[in-house]
Amino acid sequence: MQLSHRITHLLDGGSDGWEVFNRARAMIASGTPVTELTIGEHDIRTAPAILDAMHRAAKAGHTGYASVPGTPALRDTIAARVTDRTGVPTTRDNILVTTGGQAALFAAHMAVLDPGDTALFVDPYYATYPGTLRAAGAVARAIPTLSRHGFQPQTDALAAAAPGARSLLVNTPNNPTGAVYSAATIDAICDTCRNHDLWLISDEVYYTQVWDGTHITPRARPGMADRTLVVGSMSKSHAMTGSRVGWIVGPPDVISHLIDLSTDTTYGVPGYIQDAALFALNEGRALEEEIAAPFRRRRALTEAALAGQNAVRLIPAEGAMYVMLDIRATGLSGEEFAHALLDTHQIAVMPGESFGQSAAGHLRVAMTVDDASYEAALRTLVAFAADRAHASA
């Protein structure tokens, strides 16, 4: 018996990019201490008040089947929040609650792609993007970016990739690069979508983590609301990664069809978890700022740790909980460097190659351990890079 081509070709014969992470977890399981700077998991867990709200809702009996599109109260609250923060009128008919941002990404592409359609995404990319597009039956086509441009997609690269495509996936603030797309970049993306009749899927799960610049949702640009699906999530903004609450914002007719898809797949998000998400959103910006504060602080620690040396170059970190480091001066690839750093100093970082060829020779470092441990790990990384750069000179 054979499995489907769809499932066996999710990775297209390549790696899933998680080798260093898996090695680090195996070392920890065997009793070896490792400083993990690999995944976007907050070191401060979900706020106790949110967990209390979840517990109250469960004890009150909201443990049965919940409304598949999302509870009316949660959809209304997300819609009001989107209206307030983007200026685009939004109602519950524009909102579908999903089992996390990843499910939202998959559903959004299922809504706009037929098997064999070409789906565009920007390289570097979050590791699941190509597989998500292939799972939807699409041909995944990367749009390369350059380190010297701060990994912002350029107009000519967008235009070159667009002919014959059906959709474009973008992510700002960006994982893995920390880039916050400028107004000019957003305009180039929107122009490309309008000129080539593309659906735009905009992954905005890091929208509360902006250190420089301003987060701009392309849905707010003229003519874009009817061709844009925005992916949101409670995971990063409220440290609710394991609760699996996300959403899609889109035109009502698209949301209506996506409700049908949810009925046939996940059958919605547990009601008591939705109630906890509603409580968290109603806590307002103060809680979001509290969740974001450690990453803003650690970005400054990163800048200080990298000052006065030339073995490691920091790509401007404008948002999200990561920094991207250029280590090409060492003569090593990102993969070689990451494996050697783990073996030598038990520090785990993600090689840039895990996120596409545009990030080759780079590292993604998650700012997700306490300040003292983070600063010590960075200084060790820089010293290790300096030794390797000297050896390769």
From TrEMBL:
List the GO biological process terms.
amino acid metabolic process
Instruction: Give the organism the record lists.
Output: Pseudaestuariivita atlantica
Q: What keywords are assigned to this protein?
A: Aminotransferase, Pyridoxal phosphate, Transferase
The cofactors required by this protein are: pyridoxal 5'-phosphate
Q: Which Pfam families match?
A: Aminotran_1_2
User: Which protein family is named in the record?
Assistant: Belongs to the class-I pyridoxal-phosphate-dependent aminotransferase family.
* Catalysed conversion reaction: L-aspartate + 2-oxoglutarate = oxaloacetate + L-glutamate
**Superkingdom per UniProt:** Bacteria
Q: What is its EC number?
A: 2.6.1.-
Q: Which residues form the Aminotransferase class I/classII large domain?
A: 33-380
Supply the PROSITE patterns for this chain.
Answer: AA_TRANSFER_CLASS_1 (PS00105)
Which GO molecular function entries does the Swiss-Prot or TrEMBL record give?
L-aspartate:2-oxoglutarate aminotransferase activity; pyridoxal phosphate binding
Q: Where are the transmembrane segments?
A: none
Q: Which InterPro entries match?
A: Aminotransferase_I/II_large, AspAT/PAT-like, NHTrfase_class1_PyrdxlP-BS, PyrdxlP-dep_Trfase, PyrdxlP-dep_Trfase_major
Query: Under which main EC class is this enzyme filed?
Result: transferase
- Recorded protein name is Aminotransferase
